[in-house]
């Protein structure tokens, strides 16, 4: 069997991607990160649940406490409010965690090399998040070169980002075809019990379901 490290946050995109990896015939090593984010508790519970449903070989949880110390993101600094969605903007959003995906991918690469995994699946997506520089295809391509140069991996490790140019609607449509349990996922940036309904992540998630003529199966405050 092929083996893949899947970055599993417990959110909609990463859960759908893990189901895609499973459908492609990969045995899954679920990799979950905590870094002091506001919804850490809820994300962990959702990720563990999904990993169990996918019969993951391992659930590896790694703490990146340095992001809390670095700050400069509304996800890790309680003094910075999470912005409500007000429409498309060109600037880098306050929820951006500086160079987060590079940190995540570096650790995922170490794990993949140690477990002789052939692939790393990460749910980066530029369609609805144009302000995140570490979600761009060019960044993934550059990091792939770093993986190729910086590892002794056998087999070669390939970064898998099938969602990078897809919209949220396309991602949800894919997940529904695979039976993804979206009621067991979490996307809200600031609440652990009922999703806030106003942050950008809640907005894009709800709009994706609405575009498909469906209601999101999780509860919202607003």
Radius of gyration: 16 Å
CATH class: Alpha Beta
Helix count from the secondary structure assignment: 7
User: How would you state the average pLDDT, rounded?
Assistant: 96
Order of helices and strands: EHEHEHHEHEHH
Helix content: 25-40%
The domain count comes to 1
Distance between the termini: 45 Å
In the CATH hierarchy, the third-tier topology is known as Rossmann fold
The beta-strand count equals 5
Q: Which structural class fits the helix and strand makeup?
A: alpha/beta
Main β sheet profile: 5 strands, parallel
CATH homologous superfamily, by name?
A: HUPs
Unreliable spans are none
Sequence of strands across the biggest β-sheet: 3-2-1-4-5
Q: Report the principal-axis shape.
A: globular
Percent strand: 5-15%
Give a short synopsis of this structure.
With 222 residues, the chain is of the alpha/beta class. It has helices spanning 12-23, 40-53, 66-70, 100-114, 137-150, 168-177, 200-211; strands at residues 2-7, 26-34, 58-63, 119-121, 158-160. Helix 1 (12-23) links the parallel strand 1 and strand 2 (26-34).
Description of the structure:
Helix 1 (12-23) links the parallel strand 1 (2-7) and strand 2 (26-34). Helix content is 37%, strand content 12%. It has a single domain (2-166), classed as 3-Layer(aba) Sandwich (Rossmann fold). It has helices at residues 12-23, 40-53, 66-70, 100-114, 137-150, 168-177, 200-211; strands at 2-7, 26-34, 58-63, 119-121, 158-160. It is an alpha/beta fold. Strands 3-2-1-4-5 form a 5-stranded parallel beta sheet, with helices on both faces.
